[in-house]
Amino acid sequence: MTEPFAILLSRCRREAGLTQDELAHRSGLSVDGVSALERGTRRYPRRGTVEQLATALGVPAEPLLAAIPSRSALPIAAAPVVPRQLPMAVNDFTGRADDVERLTRLLRSSRGPVLVAITGMGGLGKTTLAIQVAQAVADDYPDGHLWLDLRGQSLIEPLTPLDALVQLLRGLGVPADKIPANPELAAGRLRSLLHDRRVLLVLDNAADVAQVLPLLPAGRGCAVVVTSRHTMTGLAGAHQLPLGLLAPEEAEGLLRAMVAPDRLEVEPGAVVELIDACGLLPLAVRLAGARLADRPSWPVSYLVDRLKASRLDVLDGADVGVRTAFAVSIDQLASSPLEDDQAAAVAFAKLGAFDGPDLSGRVAGALLGVDVYEAERRLERLADLHLLEPTGAGRYRFHDLLRVYAREAGVQPDVEGLTALFNAVAWRVCRLTRPATVRSEWADGRWAVDAPDLGDAVTTLDWLETEHANLVAAAMHGTASVVPLGIGLVQFGMSRGYWLDHVRICEIGLRRAIESGNGMAEGFLRNDLGLVRIDLARAGLGSFEQALDDIGAAVKVFERLDSQAGVGMCLTNLSFALDAAGHPFDAVRYAERSVEHSRLLANSHSETWARINLGELYERTGRHEEALAQYALALDLSDGDASTSAILLSRGAAYRTQGDLAAAERDLRQCAEIADRLGNRGGQARARDELGRLAQLRDDHETALRELNSALELARQYDDRSGEASTRHGLGLSLLALGRKAEAWEELAAARAIYEATGEVELAAELDRLIDEY
Fold this sequence. Notes:
The chain is mainly alpha-helical. The chain contains 42 helices and 8 strands. It has 7 domains: 5-78, 434 Repressor (Amino-terminal Domain) (Orthogonal Bundle), CATH 1.10.260.40; 97-242, Rossmann fold (3-Layer(aba) Sandwich), CATH 3.40.50.300; 248-315, no CATH class; 323-413, Winged helix-like DNA-binding domain superfamily/Winged helix DNA-binding domain (Arc Repressor Mutant, subunit A, Orthogonal Bundle); 414-562, Alpha Horseshoe (Serine Threonine Protein Phosphatase 5, Tetratricopeptide repeat), CATH 1.25.40; 563-634, Serine Threonine Protein Phosphatase 5, Tetratricopeptide repeat; 670-774, Alpha Horseshoe (Serine Threonine Protein Phosphatase 5, Tetratricopeptide repeat), CATH 1.25.40.10. It has a 5-stranded parallel β-sheet, with helices on both faces. The longest helix is centred in the last third of the chain and has 20 residues, at 519-538. Keywords: Coiled coil, TPR repeat. This is Tetratricopeptide repeat protein. It comes from Kribbella deserti.
């Protein structure tokens, strides 16, 4: 008589000297599966399963196969229904290796019941992944596999929990007339049927957590995979698997699985463009690949051109497509009885029409015309549905294709409201740092008052920098608020740089000011364009002549308006521009006129800055004592930290060149402290550079390296190419003094490259001589 399979398997395992865990590992089965076979609770293993066990045990498979009892010997009614409902897996599945490995490991765990939630935006391939892994682990669930589309993302109504329970129970062989009409009783019946069985349930397209909860088994041997576009954080005990976009190489792999390789290899650049146009979204890549496979005469570049013209049209079909996938989520929001959902649908269309790279609650609130808290509620709702992607604490962004879809609605956000917000914050910075300027006297006092309280000068500047890309995107619309915004950004530009963007904003504001006949605004913007172009010229990105023309034009505007304060401001800036252009003696004459002009107007603020500028020019032209006298007069007139910091920087540099190192260090350290408090990176960088050179004069090159490295980091944040070159030059000298030649040459070569690019011919030649000497 044939020995029972359970006893024979157990004996063979013990004779092989293996534990159940070891046999499971060798055979690729789960420990629960091996245990169930040896206990006899799993009586009818598949042939492939038996062959895996025989191979792992090193015995012939035939005796084990012969020991399996015949199903025909049992009464039909006694055999439970074993459902096999899993859809077919796609044969061109590629990528997702980490997700597949994690999901497979979870589903083969012996610590059941196992619950996994795969979530993400439409088109990510959540269902495809679930099918792929479910088929791979099917043998680990010998008592059946249930599949159910809950229709949570469908144009028809989602299944109710009772409807879902009926379908699951029918799949397990329960006659329709034996299924309770009460959802709680039906859920209890499902749990009872699955209690001692090892069944895999895949619940696809869940609408929300409430729809899923009644469908969950409690038996230790069962596993459930849920897919949804909604977040499933409320699903207690679930392993969360948020699905992301494909990596570029994964997207290319998917294309190669669908399209003849030779067609892709002849146009590698077009393949990259195609993947980029698909936004690394698996559905989009799959549809593009299918289109190429269906059109063998099309070059890849032809499809790319069509995608550039109309991406969603190309990636859409009669029954399935990217637009269709997105429409389901938005339609459900728009048709929801909940006001929050309806508001989120409107927010999706408005926010998607804005060009900024990402969104915060405050920016979204300005675009939507609601307060920051309401905006955050709507952003979170969209993120819950994976219509927005969280990128950090309180920040969100659109996928490219979702943004294209949002813009099809033709809804416009309140860009003027957002520009007005940035304008108010920019003027708040001016009030916090330089409240007594000519431009502050011109400004509407309500701007700074109406700005949100973001903290001190540093945190307010930090916020503007964080939102800078959104600020530029808003300014490009050229609404009315761009005029004062361009003027108010001067302090932000002096502290943080971003000169090219500042030029663009000032040019747009200038056109608007001229069109509206706003003469004062025109004068400020022409002046500011000149100042920014000085910095650009120093970086090799413009000409000093253009800067002089801009400021000269500003003088004429202010003279026409009889604004003597405006004329005085421009005289100071003209001298600054002439000095930067290499004409220090001409600059002195304008600086002296500026001082006298401000003094006659009794404008102490303008006189302070005019004397700082004149002192620097006296120092550069060899009039050292007169320079120190100007700084002393400026310090007496100073009305705030910004001017005090500038005076201390200039005087500290003068003391250093004159050999009074103690006085130099005192002024420079105080300057650095004030600049740090004001969030002025440009001032900090220059102060640290000066302190580094001061340490070099003392032959303290280790201190010099610390200060200069700090200055270099700040200069690069400020995008100050001229300052970066100077600091790298200094670093190279100290590294040479310390015998670290390889590092020194690296810094000196970088400095020389910048000098050459920015037209500093003499300094580049100085470094050439230094390199030749060593």
